[in-house]
Write a structure and sequence with these properties.
Elements: H1 3-54, H2 59-76
Helix pairs in contact: 1-2
């Protein structure tokens, strides 16, 4: 194999590695964006639930927020809830180490009406 053939082969290998790096970077970016979106959806759900329970806010807002969270879960997988382990504290949330948000559709989340 000539010198030019070796150079072409090494350039091809470098290109493949660069493309893999870009793909991994894009996947990580997508994960971060999905996490941020989940955080917003869960915050909105909590606000709607609080308003419904404490200020006679509309229950429809809670139902709508739950529907949006369910759609997000269907598209991106389980959402880590409070107390869920993340990779920064030794757990692996992506492999199911965290708790999924949800309670089977019960809008009261186990909290008794006051």
């Amino acid at each position: 194999m000539g010198l030019m053939d070796k150079v072409k082969q090494q350039a091809g290998q470098a290109l493949v590695k660069a493309q893999q790096g870009v793909s991994q970077g894009q996947a990580k970016l997508d994960q971060v964006q999905a996490k941020r979106q989940a955080d917003v959806l869960l915050r909105d759900l909590g606000a709607a639930y609080y308003a419904w329970q404490r200020t006679d806010g509309p229950k429809d807002a809670v139902d709508s927020a739950i529907r949006l969270v369910d759609e997000h879960v269907a598209a991106h997988g389980p959402v880590d809830g409070p107390g869920a382990r993340t990779s920064s504290d030794g757990g692996d949330a992506a492999s199911g180490g965290g708790e999924a948000v949800g309670n089977g559709g019960d809008a009261n989340f186990g909290i008794e009406d006051v």
